[in-house]
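User: Can you predict the 3D structure for this chain?
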Amino acid sequence: MTDVWGTEVRVPTEDGTADAYVARPADGSPRPAVLCFTDAFGVRPTVREAADRVARAGYTVLVPNLFHRRGPAPVVELPGFIDAKARGEFFTRLRPALRELTPQRATADAGAYLRWLAERPEAAEGPVALVGYCMGAGLALRTAGAFPDRVAAVAGFHGGRLATDDPHSPHLAAPRITAEVYLGHADEDPSLPPEQIERLERALTDAGVRHRCEVYPGAAHGFTQSDTASYDEKADERHWAALLDLLDRTFRPGTST
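Assistant: Here is the predicted structure, written as structure tokens:
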């Protein structure tokens, strides 16, 4: 197995400096870059472990604190296990930070993260892959639309509010996306009802985006997050297979199974 080196880094943005976690194979050689947009719970031990797993597969992974304007992660303290009660209390406290992260600010931040990766010797030259979870899935789609020349692949899992009537809805980025897109939806997710899934699929199809959208049966919103009550081991392993397959097909054609 590939040894992994992980550390905390600082990424300059237009609004100060974002703290982030970076993981890469320990040999230090340039590897294809993956920019990860977390769920609202942010950078924490389980997220670092997931980044290490992607790095172990041969990639350089950057996981920024999306709410860096509020300070370093965690901007709201989290328990070791997030149940329904802890989730409600967390979002009550996080609401100001969520309002502060407007689509315009999120896109500007994404540009800064992409520039940082382009300047790092451990990140290979060329376009990157994006992966997003929950709110991060929408951020990944918007970023792919805003920086089409920098993004080769997008993976999003249990994303919410991906195809709403909001003028900044993520599905509206579809005409500008040139990357391949994979989306794994939670079957039991009130934040992404069937009509939104249909609207998103139609937008990607009409825009000619190479994509695959799958609904994971019985899975709840947040099914990949092992430190939450929503975790679903079977759906999580399916997510890992889909993600690593997409990365391999994008950066190492012919290696996927």
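The chain has a mean pLDDT of 97. Residues 28 and 122 are 6 Å apart (CA to CA).
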